[in-house]
């Protein structure tokens, strides 16, 4: 497929971010994000150094709890195609793919709120500073939602593709319910709603601990939105990307 590049990509991203039918939602997020970005941008070098040294870094509270709830409300999981991963094959949870078209990053504006959020200027500029790349280095992305319920987890693995990825936590139960991300280099990470994890998930083995029900939380649920980034000259898929002329 061949498409024309926009005259002003960032303007398109930002205008797309405010399109109906989610204008009030995304404008709220954009305002929120802009504030968080300004706060975090001064710490971007610090985040970058942690990522470079350990392959995982958490940027706390990139979204407010209210906005994570509003975002989640846009997704009807019962109506979305879900890929349930069998325990014997590496865990037990549901993957809801939201975009695996591998469109060129430089024309991709996202067709639903999470994609628009993950591709908007405020988010990309912060993530790129932390990852130590330029937006022009990015070839394509892939985006999905992970949903873990009671007893569910992912076993130790390295992601098979991708150069770095962001994980936005949209829902998480209290710590006594588990759902920790653990890594072979000794990290134990408990993401709270609104936190963002940036990682080199294909470099270090990682896994999650099973969600456990408690009397106060008999049906714990953990939801994360993943954006996997591929850079030019990095880990494939080179051949699958829809480049523009
Ligand atoms: Fe992973």
Give a verbal description of the structure.
By secondary structure, the chain is an alpha+beta fold. The protein has one domain (9-231): Jelly Rolls (Sandwich). The chain is 27% helix and 25% strand. A hairpin with a 5-residue loop joins strand 2 (83-85) and strand 3. The termini are close together. 37% of the residues are buried. Residues 1-12 and 14-23 have low confidence and may be disordered. Fe (ii) ion binds next to loops. The site of fe (ii) ion has 4 residues, from loops.
Map the helices and strands.
Blueprint: H1 9-17, H2 23-41, H3 44-54, E1 56-59, H4 65-72, E2 83-85, E3 91-99, H5 113-119, H6 121-131, E4 138-149, E5 153-154, E6 164-171, E7 181-183, E8 188-189, E9 196-199, E10 206-208, E11 221-231
Antiparallel strand pairs: 1-9, 2-3, 3-4, 3-5, 4-11, 6-9, 6-11, 7-8, 7-10
Helix pairs in contact: 2-6, 3-6
Fe (ii) ion is lined by residues 157, 159, 201, 206.
